[in-house]
Design brief:
The chain is of the alpha+beta class and 415 residues long. It folds into three domains: 167 residues, Glutaredoxin (3-Layer(aba) Sandwich); 136 residues, Glutaredoxin, CATH 3.40.30.10; 87 residues, no CATH class. It is 34% helix and 20% strand. A five-stranded mixed β-sheet has the order 11-10-9-12-13, with helices on both faces. A four-stranded mixed β-sheet has the order 4-3-5-6, with helices on both faces. A hairpin with a 6-residue loop joins strand 16 and strand 17. The two termini are 36 Å apart. This is protein-disulfide reductase.
Amino acid sequence: MTNSQANTATGGGGDSLFSILSSENRDFLITPSGDKVYIKDIEGNTIGLYFGANWYSRCENFTPVLASVYHQLKGRGSKFEVVFVSSDEDQSSFDKFYSTMPWPSIPFSDLQCKRTLTQKYQIEGIPSLIILNPDGKLIRADGVELIYRYGWRGFPFTIERISVLEAEEKAKHSSQTLENLLLVEGRDHVMSHEDQVPISSLVGKTVGLYFSAHWCPPCTKFTKRLVSIYNNLKEMNKEFEIVFVSLDKNEEGYSQCYNDMPWLALPYNMEFAKSLSRYFDIQGIPTLVIIGPDGKTVTREGRNLINLHLEMAFPFTEAQLRLLQEKMDEEAKSYPSSFNHVGHRHVLKLVSENSGGGPFICCECEEQGFGWAYQCLGCGYEIHLKCVREVEGDGASKKQVPSVDSFCAISSSGV
């Protein structure tokens, strides 16, 4: 279900909450301890139907976020309830995953009810959070995004409430400066490894806010690449700085993570880091948010732009990206239209954004790509131009395409 459908839908017709959640022989939900919660006892609440499974990492990441919001709303006396609809593969997987949740659930054994709910709300991916009003009518289908973006402040998740929050957010972004982003009462500085650095000294520079954490393997991988790009830009005397925003679970993790970084950092403050994450609507890390010399947000896609264009992405503006796109289009004329890649059994075709390409994850280096790529039109396998390796003769030997090395600005190989 699309966001536009979510915004306008009043689905559920005349269905009551009871008819949505019950089945022929069941008028109750279950708790993690195995107790029963009768559906009539949660009527009158705004309901979040949480579709998820233990086998998907995004569900594991979202569940504690939702649980935190759930407890906050309960503590404020808000009439909100979540009902888990499991996509787990077996009872033991369900039991393990559900034990981490504080809300009631459709019994795992009620396959028909789970199937009906999945079809009714057109669930095409997980995690998914469907918001129903107290009458059982659909309010929003994009509950996961709203929880990440607004937390408990999004309640009751109506169009009117979200419109108010969006207006507040727009006003904040329009008056945004680097100083009002990073200043907090009693602190007007960020940290280097040696000293305090006044935030005012960063004004007028392009600044990357790097959201990362020691516990996150993709962060470790990207940090290595970002260090190289940062050092290159410093050697080129570019007015560029990075500020580490830690999402580590404790100060020890923060210290371990920052030890590998040559740039500046905010002092460890989880609550402040969370507020910045919400402000920029960050749903996963690593994320590199680029702030321009005027203090306004240039892009939240700094990580992808670094992966695609390396230091040539600087200063990350639309004008710079247009220049890079023109260069890519010109240089791509020298590439073969098809290619036998050693890592795939089918012939790969050269595609662009206008001929079947677009945003993708490279199947070789597992990093973001966009635009020009080699793609298998049959099965969707897609790789950066830099990552192709040619099959020679009997297929035993291989080499990288020589022309790709000169085109490294559009991508980078895995670290």
